[in-house]
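Sequence in, structure out. Go.
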Amino acid sequence: MGTGYRIQFKLPAHVENLYLQNSGNGSLTGNGLSNVLSGEAGNNTINGGAGNDLLSGLAGNDTFVIVKGNGSDVITDFKPGAASGDVVKLIDYGFKDFAGVKAAMSKNDSGVTLNLGGGETLHFRNVDVPAFTSGDFTFAASASSGDTVTVLASGDQYKGAPVMVFRVDGKEVFRTDVSVTHASGKWGEFTWTSKEALDGHKLDIAFTNDLYEGSGAKDRNLWVKSIEVDDAFLMDKVVNMHSNSVQSFTVPADDAHVTGLVGVAAMDNTILLAA
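Output:
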């Protein structure tokens, strides 16, 4: 299921530090400088970008995205082990499994350093090598340029399931029957991933086969609980999409997507975000 970020924010140029100050989930991305990025109590995704960055997730189950060619980073508070929800996502480094990662680790006075190759390292403060497990790492061949749309939906199943359609700039890209019954209290998760970024494009979520025959018991409806693009909410409320209705959005750019943001403070080369 999507993480459901309340805040998704990328540091603008010439600003070094970014701190999240709320209890919700956040996606924080640095720039080309040596940044300080800090989450808060939620489940955060933190990507320092280029430069040698200092990353802190604080509480919650946090994902640290480390991309080849972006320098050497330090994670201050990674919680390793099977009981933790923290994860490092290594992109394009060539590691195939945890055995390869562990072989590239070394213990030192301040923690553990992972040799990523090519002169890059990832340092974990205040931990020891035996504490790490295979669940602490995921691997990807390259960073995807596309975006993933995730919708939680259910339906009133009168004479068949409601049909939900995703459209981008008016063109249908995904169609599915929503067979999860709304009366059950459950929600189905439906996803589609684009080949390219959706920034600035129009996204429609449409109900296409409405049916009503005179009473609530003879009514087919589509119910949508949330709509996310790359785990950032475009909609976060339950909507009954009756009468073949459509929910339409213009997808904001990653560095402008600050859903749920209620406070921004900028001072001393630092941005503080609050939701």
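Check: The chain has a mean pLDDT of 89. The chain is about 0% helix and 45% strand.
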